[in-house]
Amino acid sequence: MTAPEVRIPRALAAPAPGWTTSADVIVVGSGIAGLTCALRLRERVDRVLLVTKTVLDEGSTAWAQGGIAAALHPEDSPEEHLEDTLVAGVGLCDREAVEALVTEGPRRVRELVALGAEFDLDAEGEIKLTREGGHHRDRIAHAGGDATGREISRALIAALHRVIDDPGIEVVEHALVVDLLQEGDVPDGSGEGEPGTGAPVVGVTLHVIGEGQLDGVGAAYARAVVLATGGLGQIYTSTTNPPVATGDGMAAALRAGARVTDLEFIQFHPTVLFLGEGSTGQQPLISEAVRGEGAFLVDASGRRIMEGRHELADLAPRDVVARAILETMREQGTDHVFLDARHLGADFLEERFPSIVASCRSLGFDPATDLLPVAPAQHYASGGIETDLHGRTSLPGLYACGECSCTGVHGANRLASNSLLEGLVFASRIASDIPARIAAGELPEVVVPAVPAHAGGEAGEGALLDSSQRLTVQRTMTAGSGPVRSAGSTTETAAELARLAALPPSTAAPGPRTWETTNLLHLGQVLTELARRREETRGGHVRSDFPDRDDAHWLRRQSVVVARDRSLTATERSMP
Ligand code: SIN
């Protein structure tokens, strides 16, 4: 069987925009990256429009348990953080991006504290630091024990509420980004310009569940659009990501012709509570910080899984631990292993990990007395919309930050707790770059057309996949492009996704669930194509037919671009 050619439409079928709005900058997403960017930009440009798919604190940030990594301890250094990040990334990190991350990180975390984020403190009143996989030092700041993301989200939303009456910032909740508007998209739908081939981005089409003026599909125009829309975890049957993680921003950028990179590198978190084979959707995460405090992995006979496999044993980089668990499960014909935290004691566990203990107990497991059944589940997309060091994508006017972006800091495998830091650092960089470029005349004011355009210049012709097919997409992706892949599995997955893509469009009515499902399909097709091409095992990409890392052929990053004719061009770049 040969893999079918991948074709991606330029836009989703959607009703013609019924309203318009405009701003200097549109920020899409309200996790750490989106909120940081919007809050900083509002001090530097006249008008920021912040839109989010559901409500402000619904995204992945609020679910982050472990923490935020930064060289905050006097004995630690950005150089050591850099080294650990590069090792975890297995040769594919962009060194300059990592340098920016680790050197600017400590200052950005302290700014977060100044803004109101309350991290856990030690007896001297300094930020308490712990360790997670791949780190050679204690450098993970945490809050509420294991509720770091929730506290960061709370602090940023509180800061937003302090300025919410400011006319310079408008927040629209329940606003799903459908597609990007580009120069050349014209109101009559004839698509005279060159969207999908690098045309500047001038706004987004949005579906808003609102009242009055902003309701249904509309067109929002701006000099610059910042995508901070998070991950794509819902592409798999089980994930630690919340239900909103359907890759909407990534998919919209892909359709518009932005360069998307490293998408085959998907991080599967080693310790996700195993709730049974049929359990789908968001699953309970058991933070790596639990192992950081001394818990360890065992098989059913009590044998320690990580001993002798890596010098850091249970705290080896996440891909190494996930792979060891998968190997054990395969050898022993089981669907989970166990995490043993019993020796840490009830008092310590309840104080240090209150949310995890409560979540486990509510599901019938007590970490103080029971072995916890765990198995790897999707956790993080290391790749995404490629950006430079300023967060600029390959499309003029389009920026990306946070999980939907690919700054190059994660390479083939993100180092634990580097994601909140990445969102913080690169959102701040974007918030400096956009005003500077506006001042330099590089991001001109956008003329809002009297009749709003269709994204892609097309009158809503992009085929849709009905939301009833979502589980089929998830199962197909998990089976063939999941934690372990092969030439056969990715080819079969590609064929099934192509079949879904070719289903008669009439079966699917435009609407949020359908657009999300179609986004998962488009990203699944691209991810599968890149996973099929990469004939080696590295980081978050595991091939059963090529079980070793192959630096001679694959010390390279892969990117894709969708052309105007809907074809996909994949390119490879050697690492410098
Ligand atoms: C965890 O707490 O294990 C997750 C932290 C992360 O994904 O970086």
Automatic annotation (TrEMBL):
- Keyword Transmembrane helix found: no
Q: In which pathway does it act?
A: Cofactor biosynthesis; NAD(+) biosynthesis; iminoaspartate from L-aspartate (oxidase route): step 1/1
**Domain Fumarate reductase/succinate dehydrogenase flavoprotein-like C-terminal, chain residue ranges per copy:** 513-564
BP GO annotations: 'de novo' NAD+ biosynthetic process from L-aspartate
Q: Does the keyword Mitochondrion apply?
A: no
InterPro entries hit by this protein: FAD-dep_OxRdtase_2_FAD-bd, FAD/NAD-bd_sf, Fum_R/Succ_DH_flav-like_C_sf, Fum_Rdtase/Succ_DH_flav-like_C, NadB, Succ_DH/fumarate_Rdtase_cat_sf
Annotated Gene Ontology cellular components are:
cytoplasm
- Which positions fall inside the FAD-dependent oxidoreductase 2 FAD-binding domain? 24-420
Required co-factors: FAD
* Sorted UniProt keywords: FAD, Flavoprotein, Oxidoreductase, Pyridine nucleotide biosynthesis
Write the Enzyme Commission number(s) for this entry.
Answer: 1.4.3.16
One GO molecular function term of this record is: steroid dehydrogenase activity, acting on the CH-CH group of donors
Reaction equation(s) it catalyzes: L-aspartate + O2 = iminosuccinate + H2O2
Against SUPFAM superfamilies, the record matches this protein to:
FAD/NAD(P)-binding domain, Succinate dehydrogenase/fumarate reductase flavoprotein C-terminal domain, Succinate dehydrogenase/fumarate reductase flavoprotein, catalytic domain
Where is the protein found, in the record's own terms?
A: Cytoplasm
Protein task: Catalyzes the oxidation of L-aspartate to iminoaspartate, the first step in the de novo biosynthesis of NAD(+).
Give the UniProt family note: Belongs to the FAD-dependent oxidoreductase 2 family. NadB subfamily.
* Name of this chain's protein: L-aspartate oxidase
Q: Which organism is it from?
A: Knoellia flava
Native organism taxonomy: Bacteria, Bacillati, Actinomycetota, Actinomycetes, Micrococcales
